[in-house]
Amino acid sequence: MQTAFIRNSFAVLAVVALAGGAFADESFAQAANESDNPKLDVIYVPTPHQVVKRMLELAKVGPDDIHYDLGSGDGRIVIAAVKDFKARKGVGIDLDPQRIKEAQENLAKAGVGDRVTFLNRNIFETDFSEANVISLYLLSTLNLKLRPTILDMKPGTRIVTQSFSMADWDPEHKEQVDFDDNGYKGSRTVYLYIVPAKVEGKWSMTVGAQEIALDLKQQFQRVTGTAFIGGKPSVIKDGRLNGANIEFVVELDGKPVTYEGKVDGGTITGTNNWNAKKAS
Ligand SMILES: C[S@@+](CC[C@H](N)C(=O)[O-])C[C@H]1O[C@@H](n2cnc3c(N)ncnc32)[C@H](O)[C@@H]1O
Q1: 98: closest CA among 56, 141, 140, 39?
Q2: pLDDT band per the 50, 70, 90 thresholds, residue 190
């Protein structure tokens, strides 16, 4: 791992970049522009193995998962997802042919057969919509550029990023992960995001014999809005989405009632004798 740092002529900038923050973003991108391959949006710095493990644990990678690493470097995250976490399929995408070559060599040693593929492509020109787990170690600016595509993915898709967040999209979880890679010590911040279902708009909710109109607003996983009960407005409280699972609180006859359900396109099926249909 230290060898990889030394090999990189922008090692100093990279180390500064790993500290995170606005300056880090700038240095990282600038170094990529000045590197041998001018098309790269960010230079290569590998994620330490202990951090890789924690990222995959947080994403709860398992046999049902298809994992993509966008900007996959030497392939370590994709290979670990399939080898150590038993993901069904892993795909790494990297624009730098040298990284793809290293990833193929590491794959040959890992013995995970054809469940892992490395693509020498640009992440901004490649369809990764089949993934339900994505890892990113890029830059804040690149995370933001990918964010609309990620938010259009299947609800429940898990995204793990390290060092750089998704700006005003709050993570479900954030933690510091310490590492010691043969004496190269440090700490990285790891973030977990879960793609929320899209619920913004008007819904007709049926609770037993009662009809309630919902006007929902959504900002990422946060849900706010108004419920109209017999035409009378009531503020929706504590609304949130975890993938396709929604919960919110509405006051009925002065008492707060929590509703939980599962969103499937224009239908919400409640866990407790209620459902809702999208009106607009
Ligand atoms: C910071 S490294 C992360 C490597 C790996 N994900 C890891 O965590 O160990 C970023 C990687 O993104 C690749 N990269 C930069 N711009 C890219 C682009 N537009 N499309 C695909 N890969 C890109 C670089 O070649 C580099 O390997």
Answers
A1: 39
A2: very high
Neighbours of 148 (CB within 10 A): 8
Q: Please state, in angstroms and rounded to a whole number, the distance separating the CA atoms of residues 214 and 232.
A: 11
Q: Which residues contact ligand 1 via a Cβ below 6 A?
A: 40-42, 44-47, 69, 71-73, 76-77, 93-96, 99, 122-124, 137
pLDDT above 80: residue 221: yes
Tokens of 209: 């014999």
Q: Is the pLDDT of residue 1 over 50?
A: no
Query: For 2-194, CATH number?
Result: 3.40.50.150
Query: What is residue 113's predicted lDDT score, i.e. its pLDDT?
Result: 79
Cα dihedral across residues 111, 82, 136, 48: positive or negative:
negative
Q: With residue 154 as reference, give the H or E element that holds it.
A: none
Nearest to 237 by CA among 245, 229, 227: 227
Domain ranges of the chain: 2-194, 201-278
Q: What is the pTM of this model?
A: 0.90
Alpha helices, H only, the chain: 2-7, 11-18, 22-34, 49-58, 76-83, 97-110, 140-151
Output the CA 13–ligand 1 centroid distance in Å.
16
**Ligand 1, closest atom to CA 41?**
16
Mean pLDDT of 253-277: 95
C-alpha to C-alpha distance for 144 and 148, rounded to whole angstroms? 8
Which residue's CA is minimally distant from atom 6 of ligand 1? Answer: 72
